[in-house]
Each structure stands twice: as C-alpha cells, then as structure tokens.
Amino acid sequence: MDERGRLVLPAAMRRRLGLRAGDEVTISEQEDGTLRVQGRQAAARALIGSAGRAQSSVLEELRADRQRQAAAEDEAAARPRR
Fold first, then answer.
1. What is the DSSP letter of 80?
2. How far is CA 15 from CA 7, 12, 20, 58, in A?
3. What pLDDT digit, counting tens, does each position of 61-73 carry?
4. Spatial contact of 19 and 11, defined as CB atoms under 8 Å apart
5. What 3-state class would DSSP assign to 14?
6. Torsions phi, psi for 20 (to 5 deg)
7. How far apart are CA 27 and CA 6, in angstroms?
8. Section 30-57 average pLDDT
9. Which residue of 1, 36, 48, 60 shows the fewest CB atoms closer than 10 Å?
10. Secondary structure (DSSP) of 19-63
11. Per-residue b/e over 48-80, b at no fewer than 16 CB within 10 Å?
C-alpha cells in the first residue's frame, strides 16, 4: 500500500482477474481475515449466477467436463485388473 492508501496488485494477479488500469474492484474481508479481491465483471457474473440464470457457455463447460470424466472412467474400466 502506498502513502496515499492505494493498494498495488501484482501484474500476474491483475491478468488472472482480467483487470485493467481504471477498473473498479471490490475488496472484502473474509471470516478468516483474508481479503477477497473481485473485479466488477466477476461480481456481475456471480450475481447473475445466484439469480439462477446460467449462461450456455457455463453449461457447455460442465458438459465437456462430464464427458472428460466419463471418458476417463471408460478408460479405467477397460484397463486389465491386476
């Protein structure tokens, strides 16, 4: 934190969060004392998700993940047991 009270986030963290100069973020303290940094877009997505409206891309990701799990299960079942 600098002398003017500004908090500096490392570049790698800003990239992960999709933050750019001038973006607004929300910083909240968790029960364990850690800080949570959330960009405006992530906060909006969380609110939309909590309202029950899932975007098709999320559904597609879940479907693809389940297909990968099923393929791994099939592969494991096809292996000879020792």
1. P
2. 16, 5, 8, 21
3. 888 889 999 998 8
4. no
5. helix
6. -125, 165
7. 12
8. 72
9. 1
10. --TT--EEEEE-TTS-EEEEEHHHHHHHHHHHTT---HHHHHHHH
11. eeeeeeeeeeeeeeeeeeeeeeeeeeeeeeeee
Q: Which residues contact 7 (CB under 8 A, 6 or more apart)?
A: 1, 27
Residue 34 inside a domain? The answer is yes
Residue 68 located in a structural domain: yes
Number of domains comprising the chain: 1
**pLDDT band at residue 29, thresholds of 50, 70 and 90?**
very high
Task: Look at residue 3 and tell me if it is in a domain.
Answer: no
Range of the domain at 58: 11-78
Contact 39, 17 (CB under 8 A): yes
Task: Name the residue type at position 55.
Answer: Q
Structure tokens at 28: 């909240």
The answer to whether residue 74 is domain-embedded is yes
